[in-house]
Amino acid sequence: MSNPISVNTRATPATASTEAAIPASQRAKLQLNVSILKESASISINAENDPLALVYKSAITSINEQLEADFGPDAIQSAMGQDNSPEATAGRIVSLSTAFFGAFQQQHSELEGDEALTRFMDTIRGGIEKGFKEARDILQGLQVLNGDISGNVDKTYELVMKGLDEFVANQGRKSSTDEAATGE
Predict the structure, then answer these.
(1) What is the reported pLDDT for 84?
(2) Where residue 10 falls among pLDDT bands split at 50, 70, 90?
(3) Which candidate among 30, 35, 114, 139 keeps its CA 20 to 30 Å from the CA of 122?
(4) pTM for this prediction
(5) Are 97 and 128 in contact (CB under 8 A)?
(6) What is the CATH number of the domain that holds 98?
């Protein structure tokens, strides 16, 4: 049987003066360490019942730490609250990937008009193809690429390709409008 572990973090009269002498940053670090110890004890007690819970918790904690600077605290949990439907996912993929077109044009100023757009689209379509293949391989390896999941992956892919085609069409219209405005 496991023995419960108790960690008392309340100050006693004898430790109150000691706490005042500890800098706030060090006190915060100590409190963090205490919370980690509490969580570790809780996880290790439950680990015999569900060993993957320990792996999951550790992975999520480490990923959140790495992403915190860019996305704030608890980035994974925040992302899980987003709409992950095929339509919303495809929309994010298309908008994030096509947002780089201006930067691509600046880096490849030797390419003009349709040539720049074609090269850019070839580049991002290649990345998207690779990403979808890798995602399918992972899901297949986990033996979950079937039914609704397979259908949603396929639908997302179709919507992404449609969105990229619309982006190309809009760039063509934009180019025509620019030419008409300059009188060319």
Answers:
(1) 79
(2) very low
(3) 139
(4) 0.56
(5) yes
(6) 1.10.132
Residue 3 lies in a domain: no
Residue 2's φ and ψ, nearest 5 degrees, are -85, 145
108, 116 contact by CB (below 8 A): yes
| pLDDT, average across residues 120-132 | 93
